[in-house]
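Two entries, shown back to back:
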Amino acid sequence: MTTTAITNIASLVTNDPALGDGSPLGLIENATVVIDGETVAWVGPADKAPAADESFDARGRAVIPGFVDSHSHLVFAGDRTAEFNARMSGRSYSAGGIRTTVAATRAASDAELEANLLRHLDEARRQGTTTFETKSGYGLTVADEARALRIAAAHTEEVTYLGAHIVSPDYAEDPAGYVDLVTGEMLTACAPYARWVDVFCEKGAFDGDQARAILTAGAAAGLIPRVHANQLSYGPGVQLAVELEAASADHCTHLTDADVDALAQAADTTVATLLPGAEFSTRAQWPDARRLIDAGATVALSTDCNPGSSYTSSMPFCIALAVRDMRMTPDEALWSATAGGARALRRTDVGVVTPGARADLALLDAPSHVHLAYRPGVPLVSAVWQRGVRAV
């Protein structure tokens, strides 16, 4: 098998303190990475690098792990430009906007949904994302939820069943009946395509008791829980996520001291995934990443890419928002967008550049990862390797 050495790296982020400078980023200056097939074979100082069959000259630029986007909604159809325009003109966001996308998604063909998914995946890859999670949730019928997951599963291992996004319009007068569907026939049809089960635990969507029933049923079917928690208001989502040992509590915008303490105590189990694109796009209150990090919680950053409340696929943009408006340092934001996302997906093979890890790397047109926040909006990702293959 051919080996490739990426040489002349000014600054390499490994996310392994033992390999680098002892910081969480495990920085190595003047570094080389050797790729063998789909995996990283060697990492270290350039003057100690082993020989390789081929080489790629990084020309004094920075290399980071590929971004791990652990929360997105990419199987959809339609456009909500009018909603966004109205909201930016003074209307506040509510969960009801999801129904617009549900109607468009139901009307779309499989080919149209897959083409839209692939377009967004290519867009994200060009910005350095090499691992992504995506959800159903815009079909809300047994057949539409199952086909969304089937389409997603052809392109990623990280597929989430979100039949409990909102109560289906078909069950507007019978939310209990919809919960029965989500935990019964719909779950049976969807579980074979999914790894995760999620619920939007929020006013206007599902309350704590409903969310518990949905997550418990999903877990009994072999799916691992994650929770849309505390986005629009204070509520039971975070506490439920911790109690059920969910992989992540996502959004975490409105937190009590007890919520923060719970996430800190569950730092090895439940990741607080923050989604600044949603706050940017809705002019809502920013999550307080500083409060969570200082308390000892594990924090991830993700795009929440969706057509209604966060229509961005750019992890670099979310890093810049997190540094500017959520009080994260550039180092913390990058770690959260790579290793933190991997933690939220309970993965050890991505989000790091260490021997044996998947060879997912991004080359920045800059000497340091700090430029991701320092130069917001600039397309700094100039090359991407995914599973050891040059993808961009």
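entry 2 starts here
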Amino acid sequence: MAQQDAGRETGPSSSRALYAISVAAKLAGTGQQNIRLYETKGLLTPSRTSGGTRQYSDDDIAVLLRIGELLEQGLNLAGVAKVLELEAANSKLHRALKRARSRPPG
């Protein structure tokens, strides 16, 4: 379930791992332990260096921010996981529909 769209446009630069966990925590306004918990729960999967150090991309930060929004709205982590899953599926369907509509009839 990692690579959620979280309402952001994805691309090569947004998915490139740039940040250590301490920087990701500051950018997302959460704690490092929370980020580790979200990873354990399957809400996010950061890249890792060959030495095993977590590295977070702009896409990962967007997911962390979305997790924070959903938690503030009162969802528990199971609810957050379901919402992220449904948002990713919805985004995938929208992209497929856009591709289908752009094809010439025939």
